[in-house]
Amino acid sequence: MIYVHRLIARAAAAVLAVALPGVAIAADAAAGMQKAQVCIACHGPEGVSATPAIPSLAGQPAQFIATQLLMFREGKRKDPQMSPFAANLTNTDLNNIAAYFTAQKLTLPAVTADAAAAQTGANLARQLNCVQCHGPALLGQQHIPRLAGQQREYLRTQLRGFKASTRFDMDGQMTSAAQPLSDADIESLAAYLANLR
Ligand code: HEC
Ligand code: HEC
Questions:
Q1: pLDDT of 95 above 60
Q2: Which ranges in the chain are annotated with CATH 1.10.760.10?
Q3: Which atom of ligand 1 is nearest to the CA of 101?
Q4: Which of 87, 107, 172, 193 is deepest in the core (most CB within 10 A)?
Q5: Residue of the nearest CA to atom 16 in ligand 2?
């Protein structure tokens, strides 16, 4: 298992090296936008999803997007809808697409959800220190995703998946972080995060 993780880390590093500024091939957001036209059918215009089960990509850290696409392409992370769209992307495509979506703004409608659940979720997120990895405003950083404003149903499914060890996790950190969560905790966290503006 450790060996597999090391291999994945090495593959990710190879791709991500390309995304670093100053390295020969700079990410090209305009080329990424062309490649991203097939993605918006599911992920929404400019990567702002209107579908509960499908994540928004707008404003996600570029490194997170590129890493996840790599994991889908290599068959580590699997989803019947998503996997075919990653299968034929080159390393350059991954980085260009990431550069495009990271630059889009996650514009969201006004908060509608239930305030009590969101307040419980806010307290839990504080106690469990989700900001330690996901960043002070839960906007993500490097290979760690933005959670603020993400689709509620998607957040719920992923948290359940980490807890059950069915969602792929590159370094196991998130799987550990999800272990203490009850179903009720997951509901409140998803309500809080989805409504975070
Ligand atoms: C047919 C619908 C569909 C299309 C088209 C599609 N995706 Fe996805 N995508 C999904 C679904 C569903 C998921 C969530 C999978 C899961 O639950 O693990 C996903 C997940 C992702 C993720 C992980 C996001 C996260 O927050 O973990 C990225 C990145 C992504 N897609 C990028 C793309 C890109 C880039 C394209 C176009 C090249 C694309 N997708 C096309 C349905 C689609
Ligand atoms: C020790 C670091 C760490 C902590 C603490 C942590 N996370 Fe994570 N989280 C990660 C990493 C790394 C990933 C990406 C995992 C991967 O796909 O390889 C992630 C992914 C996620 C995702 C998937 C989002 C998506 O777009 O696919 C959700 C949801 C999430 N975390 C919620 C939380 C919540 C809620 C907390 C607090 C209870 C939390 N995390 C605490 C590191 C952490």
A1: yes
A2: 2-102, 115-194
A3: 35
A4: 193
A5: 169
Tell the CATH topology of 115-194: Cytochrome Bc1 Complex; Chain D, domain 2 (1.10.760)
- Measured from the alpha carbon of residue 96, the closest ligand is 1
pTM higher than 0.85 for the full model?
Answer: yes
Q: Is 184 in the pocket of ligand 1 (CB under 6 A)?
A: no
The label of the residue with tokens 């090391």 reads 6
Average pLDDT of the chain to the nearest whole number: 90
Q: Please report, as a single letter, which amino acid is at residue 21.
A: P
Q: Which ligand is nearest to the CA of 194?
A: 2
Asked whether residue 17 carries a pLDDT value surpassing 80, the answer given is no
Q: How far apart are CA 162 and CA 41, in angstroms?
A: 27
Q: Express each pLDDT in 19-76 by its tens digit.
A: 444 444 578 999 999 999 999 999 999 999 999 999 999 999 999 999 999 999 999 9
- Homologous superfamily assigned to 2-102: Cytochrome c-like domain (1.10.760.10)
C-alpha distance from residue 94 to each of 62, 67, 69, 164, 165 (Å): 9, 8, 7, 28, 26
